[in-house]
Design a protein that fits this description.
The chain has about 230 residues and is mostly helical. The protein has a domain at about 65-220. The chain contains ten helices and no strands.
């Protein structure tokens, strides 16, 4: 003789046995396009490096090493800014689906930042990697840039759903490091530029807007609602 399972006990069991929620095909297609677009700058740069190596006409200018490093670092900064723009865009548009792209964009920021650092170590220091500590100590723009990359490392490692569940509330606090990382990245770019600061000033302005939006929204939540 079977015994009926109470509804309160049956609900958790039903949730455990339910199949995981499937990603809509439209989101899968959009992510595929996002991956393609995100990898395009690296593919173009790779082709130009190959052309430079084989024919000497890759279009990388008089200082190919500096151009490679600059372009990789610039794309790291761009993806960081785009990732930070996801939350304001979601709040303005009312489209929560945009949040599905935030992790992807953040990981590409880490990818290009790591490639930027690798290019510096391999092409600029030419394998004398122990000099990186001396460079970090005596060049402030390298110091802040290296700190920005170090900050991205734990964010990339903990970007999975499994790590999000394990860390719980600590995950959100850890990933608030991205704001300090963005400030360091912009400062790295600003100090790197010798004379024309228009481009780093543009990114500084974008970052100010993105962080200012968050401060404004947080202050808005604290205001007492009218009776």
């Amino acid at each position: 003789m079977s015994e009926a399972v109470p509804a309160a006990a049956a609900a958790p069991a039903a949730r455990r046995t339910a199949s995981p929620r499937k990603t809509p095909p439209g989101v899968i297609a959009a992510k595929a396009v996002a991956h393609l677009l995100a990898l395009t700058p690296a593919a173009i740069l790779g082709w130009q490096v190959w052309q430079e190596f084989s024919t000497g006409q890759g279009g990388l200018g008089a200082d190919p090493v500096a151009e490679i490093e600059h372009r990789l670092g610039l794309w790291a900064l761009r993806f960081l800014m785009i990732a930070l723009a996801v939350t304001p865009l979601r709040q303005l548009s009312g489209q929560p689906v945009l949040l599905r792209f935030r992790r992807l964009l953040g990981l590409y920021a880490f990818f290009y930042a790591s490639a930027h650092l690798a290019a510096y170590l391999v092409l600029d220091l030419r394998g004398y990697w122990t000099q990186i500590f001396e460079e970090i100590a005596k060049r402030p723009y390298i110091t802040v840039g290296f700190l920005a990359w170090l900050g991205l490392v734990p964010l990339a490692i903990t970007s999975t759903q499994g790590m999000m569940r394990r860390l719980g509330r600590l995950w959100g606090r850890l990933h608030q490091l991205v704001y300090a990382i963005a400030v360091l990245a912009v400062l790295h770019f600003w100090w790197l530029v010798k004379s024309d600061i228009r481009e780093p000033a543009l990114y500084a302005g974008i970052l100010a807007v993105l962080l200012g939006w968050r401060v404004w929204k947080r202050l808005g939540k604290r205001r007492p609602k009218p009776a």
